[in-house]
Specification:
Blueprint: H1 2-27, E1 34-40, E2 48-51, E3 61-69, E4 78-82, E5 86-90, E6 98-106, E7 114-121, E8 126-130, E9 140-147, E10 160-164, E11 167-171, E12 178-187, E13 195-201, E14 208-211, E15 221-228, E16 240-242, E17 250-254, E18 260-268
Parallel strand pairs: 3-16, 4-9
Antiparallel strand pairs: 1-6, 2-5, 3-6, 4-5, 7-12, 8-11, 9-12, 10-11, 13-18, 14-17, 15-18, 16-17
């Protein structure tokens, strides 16, 4: 009888430990964030449809993207339309095509990840996006992507020009008349599943390797990056990740800036880039 009670006690104790462990994992996860990768053909100046899996309940979400490609005269991705199920985006104008990495998060997400967007009009040279809640300091990694129906012939370039605890400022390099700037940021104190990396740049390097704060198990992840040039009033720079450079511990970027920083955020995806329409976490 005592042995049976002991076995029951051990079983219950182990069950409690497992539940606590699972609860800890949930507490440290990445919330309702989506990550996806989609192939695009050459040239990359045609709309590509990115499918969200699972779909969002509405269009109240932030989306950021970066193209994976080989060195060329490339541009930044521009979102041209969004729905709960998908969005259309022009990846770049580069040859010979590549892979588009996108990350999205709903406005309702309550994790430590900051995510916001700011509408603008009147051809502003810079767009300031407020954080809510604000950060305690400027020690965070941020990425931004433009959304506009005023795309015309495109050619979008941009850099992050200022970071404060309560906002981020991004250059409107192509001078779009109207649009919305999407930005996402992660504090250095974050312990979620979302990876981040921020590297100082100088000497106009051709490539910059960005290490992740935590290793991935493999290279099946979506990575989004932005150039950061404090004090910039404008920019003709773009950034991409180097094709086939994703390693578990790092990714190689092509920053196109003389000096500043490269900010990157990444999250695991469930399937390969060859899946039509992309894949999700």
């Amino acid at each position: 009888m005592k042995n049976r009670q002991l076995r029951l006690y051990v079983t219950v104790t182990l069950a409690v430990i497992v539940l606590l462990y699972c609860a800890a994992l949930v507490a440290a996860n990445s919330g309702d964030i989506r990550g996806t990768t989609v192939l695009f053909a050459s040239p990359g100046n045609n709309n590509v449809t990115v499918v969200w899996n699972p779909p969002f309940p509405d269009t109240n979400y932030i989306a950021v993207c970066t193209a994976e490609q080989f060195p060329s005269d490339f541009l930044l991705p521009v979102i041209t339309s969004r729905s709960p199920q998908s969005m259309n985006i022009v990846p770049t104008d580069a040859f010979p095509g590549g892979t588009l990495d996108c990350i999205a998060i709903p406005d309702s997400d309550g994790t430590d990840i900051r995510h916001t967007r700011a509408a603008f009009t009147g051809h502003p040279s810079q767009v300031t996006v407020p954080w809510n809640p604000v950060f305690t300091d400027s020690n965070y990694t941020a990425v931004c992507t433009m959304e506009t129906q005023d795309y015309g012939n495109g050619e979008f370039t941009s850099v992050i020009s200022a970071k404060t605890p309560d906002s981020i400022t991004v250059t409107n390099g192509s001078g779009f008349n109207t649009g919305t700037m999407h930005c996402m940021a992660i504090p250095d104190s974050d312990i979620s599943d979302v990876r981040r990396g921020r590297v100082t740049v100088s000497g106009h390097p051709n490539t910059v390797t960005v290490p992740w704060n935590q290793r991935f198990a493999n290279g099946s992840y979506a990575a989004v990056c932005s150039d950061e040039v404090p004090g910039a009033m404008g920019s003709d720079s773009a950034i991409a990740t180097y094709a086939d450079s994703k390693l578990p511990a790092s990714v190689v970027t092509i920053p196109e800036i003389q000096s500043g920083l490269v900010d990157c955020i990444a999250i695991l995806t469930r399937c390969a880039a060859s899946v039509v329409g992309g894949c999700g976490p």
